[in-house]
Amino acid sequence: MAAADNLPSLRAVHLLKTFGDGASQRTALRKVSLNLFPGQLALLMGPSGSGKSTLLAILSGLLHPDGGQVLTRPNDQTSFVDIWGISEAARDDFRRKHTGFIFQGYNLFPALSASQQLEIVLKWGNNLSPGEARRQAEEMLDRLGLLNQRHKKPAAMSGGEKQRVAIGRALVKNPTFLFADEPTSALDWENGQAVIQLLRDAAHSRGATIFVVSHDARMLPFVDVCFHLDDGNLEEHEIPLVVAGE
Ligand SMILES: Nc1ncnc2c1ncn2[C@@H]1O[C@H](COP(=O)(O)OP(=O)(O)OP(=O)(O)O)[C@@H](O)[C@H]1O
Ligand SMILES: [Mg+2]
């Protein structure tokens, strides 16, 4: 179960972020602190514009905070890496090796089929042979209900299919940290539930730390911890104790 290890895998300390200046200035995060643990599936909720995508981008090393720290501990190492205190090259390296990101807008490569989107991660990121990369890509697409769509390119996919390919691409990499911004927004509840179950398995059986942004309160029974952002202020929320499917 979650948090077998009682040291966090990821700590945010007093994160600040403001966009723009003068009259158009917008404070997205106000001293946000949180701890996430190995094997934990965490949910981030909050109204539109409350700072959820901003927080995910800072935690994952994509967007520089104006203040505060992001401390990460990949692969159960004993010491923390301050990802905004290292060089850009070291941060890129850290992201490539240890993090996965499912973006709000999918970010698929237009020229590649569903299967190829996953195969390139497995070949170039995880150093697998082409045959093994194809086998693992197809296995993941099958779990996402997409095996029959494996030859389709993004232009021919529905929004929900693109979203599931983006999820598969992040999951096959088997990252220590996985950040997902509204991963089920284009899915019906049946497919959404399958995706949450996959994220939950990745956290609980592989020890990944997974942070998911969603508006969908139906996810609550599946997660280990829930945070709520409101106008840049973060709070931890109680979640129901009964967990489905375990
Ligand atoms: N690049 C940017 N330039 C200026 N303002 C920005 C930028 N990115 C975000 N903001 C502002 O910061 C605030 C937080 O935005 P953010 O995208 O993090 O919200 P969100 O909670 O993810 O919203 P949604 O649920 O609509 O995706 C908003 O007021 C937004 O307008
Ligand atoms: Mg957002």
From TrEMBL:
Gene3D superfamilies: P-loop containing nucleotide triphosphate hydrolases. Keywords: ATP-binding, Nucleotide-binding, Transport. InterPro entries: AAA+_ATPase, ABC_transporter-like_ATP-bd, ABC_transporter-like_CS, ABC_transpr_LolD-like, MacB-like_ATP-bd, P-loop_NTPase. One of its GO terms (cellular component) is plasma membrane. Residues 10-245 form the ABC transporter domain. It comes from the Bacteria. Coiled coil: none annotated. The keyword Lipoprotein does not apply. CDD domains: ABC_MJ0796_LolCDE_FtsE. One of its GO terms (molecular function) is ATP binding. This is ABC transporter ATP-binding protein.
